[in-house]
Amino acid sequence: MTKTKRVFTIIGAFFAIQGALILMLAPEYALEIIAIGVGFTLVIYGIKYLIYYLTHAQHMVGGKWFLLIGLIMLDAGIFAGTVYDKAKVMTILYIAGAHLVGAGLNIVRAVGNRKDHNRGWKTDMAQGVGNIILVLLCIIFMHDVIIPVYIYCISAIYTAILMLISAFKKTAIVYVQ
Amino acid sequence: MQADFHYYATYCAAYIAGYSHEEALALCYSDQFVDCCTKTFLKSVSATVHAATSQSQAELVDTRADAVGLQDITRIWSSFHFLPKDLFAEVRWATKTYKNKYRLICGPNGDLVKDTVDLAKGKSIQAAGIAMHVLADTWAHQNFAGTPSLVINNTTNDFYEIMPDGETKKLTFKHSPGASDDIENSVYNSTVFNPSETNILNLGHGHAGHLPDYSFIRYKYLPAWDNYRECLKDNPSDYRHAFCQMIYAMKYLRGENAVFEKNTYDEETAAPYIERIMTIITKRQGDASADWKAFGEELSGMEIPDFDVNAYVQEYKSAAPEERDETFLGRFIIAALSQKSMVTNKIFKSGNILAGFSIDYKKKGFRGIKDYRKLVEEHVRNSQ
Fold it and tell me: B61 and A105: CB-CB below 8 Å?
């Protein structure tokens, strides 16, 4: 990892933790902020796909699909940004969906690691079960605001901590002639 | 390539090149072990995970798709399975990030193949085995890159097999992980399309399934990177070249040839056996192990045991820590670290950081991952 990348990773993790703590302090506004965030993310992804088309996919067989996907995401993001105040249930479902996908991946990993006699399978399984509990909490407390917001924020803090660990890891390969 | 070529065919090539039965066995074991030496395996014997020469599916899924994770994947797959052909290849009107991926496309007779064989010269038999794996894979895995990249490794679904009578037959692909290929009905398993540029599903030849691993097949397809040009992959010819180039390289490693040059094949030494070799290569089957094994046993008159991934585990685990580097696995680990270090350095020096950063010990002293200190110790041992 380059020094610049490390610095940006640390700054990004710092802002993610700060943002999550602020949302936890004001959960009544949090869902609208998250909805705006989702719309913003779609716009960013739309732009990212367009850049990807210009820098990479234009050289690829069938690469024009990315031009199309980029335009659709950009459009969807702008649309989501205009209806953010009516999106409470959708936002909660988005959070639940993200954890459900995470749970699926954790369990697949755990099964594979167990088959390979890798002791890490218990950690993966615990993370998978944890993610399923979060999904259930999201659905049970769908009409409550605080629980889904807390779940979203705790996930963001967890991801930020992983980013920090990654930023401080030694990664250079030594070349001995 | 699979165990049939990496283990049994390599045994045959090594024996023909002049190695004894025992040496040929150790060499072909090391060659095949490159496909088995994962981080999971290394953890199970308490060895450094940085010597990994392959990754299991579970490990690939587990790898974070950030820059560090992608560099780790690229180091392993580019160093051992998809050796880049030309680190300075040019593409018109392309950005630097695209060129960096394009330059990792694997192919035979690149400068790095010579560097790989030269690196193994004067080293252990395990180093020779690793070099033969890398060399053979440059033939089988050509046109794909050892880094996750949709724009390089993707293909269209239009694959056509060229049958021995010259007729073409359209191949069908399914996407069921773990399912086996139905060669008779031309139904093969391949990786499902994933639109993310750096998703692990876009690593190597997954979109072509196991076609590059079957020696008998000749086929046409459309790779993502070649500007709508149809690519013809003639595996029988490629596998023959790989076999003859291995003989030539191993003769060099044994000191029979003074130099190892690119585009050179020892057809002369292989000539007495070439008909038999081509019969095995062109036989329409998914696994040619039995045929190669029978050929190898005829050559040496000795039995070739089946490959056992745990054959040298006990020796390594029961050795005292300071003596482990002298065991079979210990020597393999040092050779693997050395190959990975060399390839990463060459890629890094070409201005490409997809395989990570490399620090030249001679210029800057020891910095970076501490497990590579083994290479310094080995260097000191060899200098004495």
Answer: yes
Mean pLDDT across chain A: 84
Token pair 């716009």 in the structure block, residue: A43
Residue B121 burial (CB count, 10 A): 15
Q: Which two tokens stand for residue B89?
A: 């290849």
Task: Please check whether residue A171 is in contact with residue B68, taking contact to mean a CB–CB distance below 8 angstroms.
Answer: yes
Cβ-nearest to A116 among B40, B341, B378: B40
Q: Is B345 exposed, middle or buried (0-12, 13-18, 19+ CB in 10 A)?
A: buried
pTM higher than the cut 0.90: no
Cβ–Cβ gap B58/A109 under 8 Å:
yes
User: Using an 8 Å Cβ cutoff, are A133 and A114 in contact?
Assistant: no
Query: Which has the higher per-residue pLDDT, B384 or B1?
Result: B1
pLDDT range class, residue B115, cuts 50, 70, 90: very high
Crossing angle between the packed helical segments B328-349 and B111-120, to the nearest 10 degrees: 150
Considering only CB atoms, which chain A residues are within 8 Å of B375?
Answer: 174, 176
Minimal C-alpha gap between A146 and chain B (Å): 30
Which of B64, B359, B370 has the CB atom closest to A166's CB atom? B64
Query: Residues 6 or more apart from B181 whose CB is under 8 A from it?
Result: B187, B188, B189, B209, B210, B286
For residues B189 and B180, the answer to whether their CB atoms sit within 8 Å is: yes
| Residue spans per domain, chain B | 3-148+235-383
Say whether residue B359 is in contact with chain A using an 8 A CB cutoff.
Answer: yes
Interchain CB contact of B370 with A (< 8 Å): yes
Assess contact for B233 and B219: CB atoms under 8 A.
Answer: yes
Q: What distance in Å separates the CA atoms of residue A61 and residue B6, rounded to the nearest whole number?
A: 33
